[in-house]
Structure formats: C-alpha cells, structure tokens
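Lab notebook, design round three. We kept the backbone fixed and only want residue identities now. Task for the bench partner: fill in a sequence for the structure below.
Input structure tokens:
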C-alpha cells in the first residue's frame, strides 16, 4: 500500500524497535523494505575518517535484511556515507530514489534527524 518502506537503522535499541514496526507494516501491506544505514565520516587531511568504527551498524542493517527476507518480506540493503551531521539528507535521498511512501527510524533525541 505504501509502495516502499525505508527503514533507517544504526546499532541502537531504538533502531531495533523501528525494525520491528517496519517488519509488521511490510508484512501486512506486502510492501518492500529498503534498509538504509549511513556511516558518518569526518573530512580530514588525507581523506575521510569514520567517526565510530561502524561495523556494528552495518551488521545490524544486514541482519535486518536477512530477517525481513526470512519472514517473506522483500528487502534490500542500501549503505551510505555522509559527512557528520548530514545523515538525514542521505536517508531522504534514499527514500526519494526508491519512491518510498514511509520512512521508519528510531530516535534517541540526540540529533536533529
């Protein structure tokens, strides 16, 4: 019904709850879920530096895709990178690119996204 649901995740408990919600929605509507994870980077002399050694977030995103598929939900993974403070724009761009009708994400209230 929504067409595509974008699920934006990191390795936080809030993202886990968002994943549960997106799974329930997609299972009931038959929509595809695009799982998006964005690694924040900082520009430094000589290139970019990941701010948090983001393996946990990437593994969480991969796990969400596997769990969705195992539950019969069509899912795909989008991994992005953004300069610190610009994660929200990458998520919105992914939603526009995949013609999403809904973005689901958790919030800790620690950032403006």
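Proposed sequence:
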């Amino acid at each position: 019904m929504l067409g595509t649901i974008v699920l934006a995740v990191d390795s936080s408990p809030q993202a886990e709850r968002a994943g549960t919600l997106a799974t329930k929605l997609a299972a009931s509507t038959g929509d595809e879920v695009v799982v998006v994870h964005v690694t924040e980077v900082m520009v430094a002399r000589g290139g970019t530096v990941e701010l948090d050694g983001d393996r946990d977030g990437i593994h969480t995103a991969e796990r969400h895709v596997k769990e969705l598929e195992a539950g019969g939900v069509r899912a795909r993974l989008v991994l992005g990178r953004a300069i610190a403070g610009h994660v929200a724009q990458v998520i919105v761009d992914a939603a526009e690119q995949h013609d999403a009708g809904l973005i689901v994400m958790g919030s800790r209230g620690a950032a403006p996204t």
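Keep this in mind before ordering anything: The chain has a mean pLDDT of 88.
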